[in-house]
Amino acid sequence: GAVVSQHPSRVICKSGTSVKIECRSLDFQATTMFWYRQFPKKSLMLMATSNEGSKATYEQGVEKDKFLINHASLTLSTLTVTSAHPEDSSFYICSARRDRFLASEQFFGPGTRLTVL
Amino acid sequence: AQSVTQLGSHVSVSEGALVLLRCNYSSSVPPYLFWYVQYPNQGLQLLLKYTSAATLVKGINGFEAEFKKSETSFHLTKPSAHMSDAAEYFCAVMFRRGPLVFGKGTRLSVIA
Fold first, then answer.
1. Which residue of B has its CA nearest to A39?
2. Is the CB of A16 inside 8 Å of chain B's CB atoms?
3. d(Cα A4, Cα B82) in Å, to the nearest integer?
4. Is B106 exposed, middle or buried (0-12, 13-18, 19+ CB in 10 A)?
5. pLDDT in tens, B53-95
6. Does A51 contact B at CB distance below 8 Å?
7. Residue B91 in contact with residue B103, Cβ under 8 Å?
8. Tens digits of per-residue pLDDT, B15-26?
9. Residue B104 is nearest to which of A42, A93, A111, comparing CB atoms?
């Protein structure tokens, strides 16, 4: 099966610091990776779509300078929350799609719980 | 624009009873439809998906869903609930190669 990992699984940081979250496709090459944010008892909100080697496409209302996304290789995408504030505390989930076929399945990582103090 | 509506944020059933989780979609063209399950503090696991083949789709863990174009629905069912089915369930829609658009989720509780 296709496995997607995220690191770290949990992170606590002080307000004003930056946090980097890694998303890796372990046994396949991901043409596209997605980053979602999930608030408690809420649905997943798509933040951005990233394709390897190109700039990420951010959804409306998502600050691209705040949430930096880098998709440097076909197996790794990173989300950096810059100058984190308590309102950035959330559950961040990435997913990866391994080909460009229609309805190609997205495989989800286990998520990263970010707490900003 | 595509959207997904899940009716009922919380559904509670007895163990052994029928599970029915409702999902309606809005799309100008036939979409691809998905059901995902999420256990606490975990990512999402695909239960099943509809990609314009058979309208009755069978998934993992005994779940199935039927695509009804006339009703724009894709309800998830399971004949007999198990305690292990307690989780959050998300219906999602996808158009072409776009990202998944999720419903707000339905929390399923199973009572012994």
1. B104
2. no
3. 27
4. buried
5. 788 999 999 999 999 989 999 999 999 999 999 999 999 998 7
6. no
7. yes
8. 999 999 999 998
9. A42
